[in-house]
Amino acid sequence: MKRQLIAAVGVAAMVVGLAACGSDGKKNDAGSGSSSAAGAKNYSGKTLTVWLMDGSAPKGWTDSVKSEFETTYPGAKVDFQIQKWNGIGAKVTTALSEGSVDVLEIGNTQTAGYAASGGLLDITKDKDALGGADWAANQNESTVLEGKQYAAPWWVSNRVVAYNKDLWTKAGIAAPPKTLDEFYADLDKLKATPGVADPIYMPGQEWYTYFGLLTTEGGKLAKKDGDKWVGGLSTPEAQKAFDTYKKLQSYSATGPKDKDEATPQQKDVFGKGDIGSIIGLGWELPDEKTMAKDKIGFFPLPGKTADKASSVFLGGSNLAVAQASKNSDMAKDFLKIALNDKNEGLVAAAGSIPNKAALNSQVAGDFAKAALPAAQNGAITPNTPTWTNVENEPNPVKDFLTSALTGDYAAAAKKADDEIAKRMNQKQ
Amino acid sequence: MAVHSERVQTQSPGSGKAAVASTDEIVASGAGRTPKSGRPAGGPRVPARLTPYLLLLPAVAATVLLLGWPLLKTILVSFQNLNKRQLIQHLTEWNGFENYTEQLGSADFWRITGRTVVFTVVNVVLIMVLGTLVGLLLNRLGKKMRLTLSIALILAWAMPVVAATTVFTWLFDQQFGVVNWFLDKLGWHSMLHYNWTSTQYSTFFVIILLIVWGSIPFVAFNMYAGLTTIPKELYEAARMDGAGSFRVFTSVIVPIMKPFFLATTFLEVIWVFKAFTQVYLINKGGPEDLTRTLPVHAFLEGFGAQRFGAGSAIAVLTIVMLATLMAYYFRIILKQEDEL
């Protein structure tokens, strides 16, 4: 009997196993509750669903925006939903398809892709009402596709060097470096200091740092040649940028060459106290309990000469209205409040760079003060719908960095260029 | 499928060994060919005739709803150009066999398929050999040790895959992994900060270890359960005829357990072939896609790159490959039944 039972269980398991291979692209999320027939400016009883990314909105911002909106439009509600990064691409696509979100935060390198897919509402007419005349040009670039405005810039942030003041003092370094050569000399001093595991912790796949160095050299990850995109890693500029990157990375004894800054989280590594410095964003720092704030200093990654810091990747977020939103007027009015000078000032005070240069004076914190000057030289990835394909895992730029660090540059660059071109020229 | 499962139930090892056949006859006539006994002579009334189908209904409904429908959708999507844009705008763009020709004409697809086949063979051979050995061991151990081993096996088996994979990533972690620490203590000092996920083979080593470790209990318990059905007399008779341990295994155990070996091997082939969680979580198919297997490929193309049509085509091709294997399995089963 046992044998037959086994066989029966086995066959049942096979059936389950086979069909489980298939997976369906669509997922039916429940749509948002609100219906149409909007009375002008009377949003009473309606709820606006706003998606924000995990760890993105500064403290106090959501509360301020929510209370201001709900006071201005009595009876209306804002439902902030915080989204996890994991698998966000397919989730945003589904939400835009189902109309289950009204306003959403979209990374500035992803905006063109969603705009081209028809998921975002054209808000060209509302640009001025949102304060668009004063938006920083290098931030607004990512929100425009073929002359139409599909989102509003919200904030950007860029990476700077964060250093452990105690270790630097111990190594006998008096002031932050002004040029790359000075930085190398400091790292050498740190290397010789007992108690320092890594003069700088830098995993091999820190492609945002490489992007900054590439921009400094005048290179680009991809360029348009006729109507086709070609990868730009096989160029002399890319090679020069990589030499700098490799030199910096060589100071990281424990940084895995095949991992990015999130595995393990570099703030946890830095928090252990034996790491001289990291290159990171404002929230990639240990909390107050692990390492006191006044123990951490910041400076922009220096350039070859003292007059110009290295360029940076200007990562950030835009706010967009979903095309399928049933509350688009309400969503636009929400944007007016969310992006007004008061709330945008809160973004600045929390240490991100706001969307208007006039608010830069409100930027607070040592990190942001170091980040601000470098942001002037900041750039973003090619502003084109198919760029997002390149950032899909496995990201060929990350793989390129690992292979070039461990092997032959030319072969790694060629392989990555082919993959970048393949993905960027893909049919939509 | 229900028909097939009945067949498996009723079939018994067609080994042809005289000593074995007699015991099998009893089992087969008792469980399988029901008409001879049990039913009233005048034929069952209608409700009674319907009962089996009514009992099957919930399972069939659940299967159709949870597996059949998604499968059908997957097949439909695989004939469409369905990307981000089409999904958001609810566009249906049929493109015939384009997704399939793209995949079948792609060197990547065939490289990944070949890799998946080799990966499956290595895993299944290891699982079957080690699982069988552990099963034999279970049969021979004394009560206390058998209980201890059974508990250990059950714990390994009961561990959720994601949890097990997470534990393995920590065991083999470059900086903090206990494996590297231990190897260093044993004298292999170069292993102290060895990066297990840096090359194709070392990554596969970790994945295979994880899968084999997780699959041995199933094979071992089934093997042990099967062994308990073999009467002691058969071993004694074989020993009397001068058979050694190996000969007992090949001449007594293997013929009797043939259906077990067949079913388990095919099950393991399917499970390993479609193993997604372990492969994906250890290193996401890296380094440089060198550990990408077919299910991971389907996921990364479908959900990662949001090319749902292409991803579905890969999934369907995977199903076709497994179905071909299944067909071969059922052929063997049916053949055996004919021989009876």
Q: How many separate domains of chain A?
A: 2
> In angstroms, what is the radius of gyration of chain B?
25 Å
Name the structural class of chain A. alpha+beta
- CATH architectural category of the largest domain in chain A: 3-Layer(aba) Sandwich
Helix and strand element order of chain A: HEHEHEHHEEEEHHHEEHHEEEHHEHHHH
End-to-end Cα distance of chain A: 56 Å
- Ends distance of chain B: 22 Å
Order of helices and strands of chain B: HHHHHHHHHHHHHHHH
The total beta strand count of chain B reads 0
Can you say what the CATH homologous superfamily of the largest domain in chain A is? Answer: Periplasmic binding protein-like II
| Overall average residue pLDDT of chain B | 85
What does the largest sheet of chain B look like? none
- Oligomeric state of the chains? heterodimer
The dominant shape of chain A is globular
CATH class of chain B: Mainly Alpha
Specify Rg of chain A, calculated over alpha carbons. 24 Å
Portion in helices of chain A: 25-40%
| Shape descriptor of chain B | globular
Task: Find the CATH superfamily of chain B.
Answer: MetI-like
What does this structure look like?
The complex is a heterodimer of chains A (428) and B (340). In chain A, strand 4 and strand 5 form a beta hairpin. The radius of gyration of chain A is 24 Å and the shape is globular. In chain A, strands 2-1-3-12-6-13 form a six-stranded mixed sheet. In chain A, helix 8 crosses helix 9. Chain A is α+β, with helices and mostly antiparallel strands and 428 residues long. Chain A contains 16 helices and 13 strands. Chain A folds into two domains: 166 residues, Periplasmic binding protein-like II (D-Maltodextrin-Binding Protein, domain 2), CATH 3.40.190.10; 187 residues, D-Maltodextrin-Binding Protein, domain 2 (3-Layer(aba) Sandwich). Helices cover 38% and strands 14% of the residues of chain A. Chain B has 340 residues and is an all-alpha fold. Chain B has one domain: MetI-like (MetI-like fold). In chain B, 74% of the residues lie in helices and 0% in strands. The longest helix of chain B has 34 residues. Chain B is globular. Chain B starts with a helix and ends with a helix. In chain B, 34% of the residues are buried. Chains A and B meet through helix 1, helix 3, helix 4 and helix 15 of A and helix 1, helix 3, helix 4, helix 10 and helix 13 of B.
